[in-house]
């Protein structure tokens, strides 16, 4: 079957089985590297993207269930010439060690900042609590989100 989906503002027609996880379409068919395969069970957050404005574990949503909801991945937040404030803040704060979790952290932080432009430290930690990370840079991640929030306030 073929499905028409909108990813990062561009329309794509993809040929895939209806039960294909969205993550596979994003990575294999569209060549996007932001969402990562982590656990495949929707538990770690490495595959996170925005689907219809909602933070979504793309390994756990079937292509048929996306419908006409627009999808935004890490690549859709900014460009190499004009980074999104979250992307820039993660770089400036060196908020990654090995970086596999960065996609989920940034996408979860984006979902938070879309709802709350000035979150407290506790609200940031709560929003990121379900994003599994082994980096040990949690304080830097929180600082990066605060930095991006301040930039977005300008």
Q: Top keywords for this entry?
A:
Ubiquitin-like (UB roll); 5 strands; 5 helices; 3-stranded antiparallel β-sheet; 154 residues
Please, could you describe this protein's structure?
The chain has 154 residues and is α+β, with helices and mostly antiparallel strands. The chain has five helices and five strands. The strands form two sheets. Strands 4-3-5 form a three-stranded antiparallel beta sheet, covered by helices on one side. The protein has a two-stranded antiparallel sheet with strand order 1-2. Strand 1 (2-7) and strand 2 (10-15) form a beta hairpin. Helix 2 (85-92) crosses helix 5 (138-153). The longest helix has 16 residues, at 138-153. The radius of gyration is 15 Å and the shape is globular. The protein starts with a strand and ends with a helix. The relative contact order is 0.16. The mean pLDDT is 95.
Instruction: Label the structural class.
Output: alpha+beta
Per CATH, the superfamily of the largest domain is Beta-grasp domain
How many DSSP H or I helices? 5
Mean pLDDT: 95
Question: How does the SSE layout of this entry go?
Answer:
Blueprint (H helix, E strand, L loop, with lengths): L1 E6 L2 E6 L6 H8 L18 E4 L2 E4 L13 E2 L12 H8 L9 H14 L5 H8 L9 H16 L1
Antiparallel strand pairs: 1-2, 3-4, 3-5
Helix pairs in contact: 2-5
């Amino acid at each position: 079957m073929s499905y028409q989906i909108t990813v990062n503002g561009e329309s794509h027609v993809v040929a895939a089985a209806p039960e294909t996880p969205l993550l596979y379409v994003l990575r294999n068919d569209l060549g996007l590297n932001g969402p990562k395969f982590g656990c495949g069970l929707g538990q770690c957050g490495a595959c996170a993207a925005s689907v219809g404005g909602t933070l979504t574990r793309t390994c756990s949503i079937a292509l048929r269930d996306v419908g006409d909801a627009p999808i935004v991945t890490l690549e859709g937040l900014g460009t190499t010439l004009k980074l999104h404030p979250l992307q820039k803040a993660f770089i400036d704060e060196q908020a990654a060690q090995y970086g596999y979790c960065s996609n989920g952290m940034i996408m979860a932080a984006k979902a938070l900042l879309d709802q709350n432009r000035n979150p407290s430290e506790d609200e940031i930690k709560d929003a990121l609590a379900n994003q599994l990370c082994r980096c040990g840079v949690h304080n830097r991640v929180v600082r990066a989100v605060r930095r991006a929030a301040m930039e977005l306030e300008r």
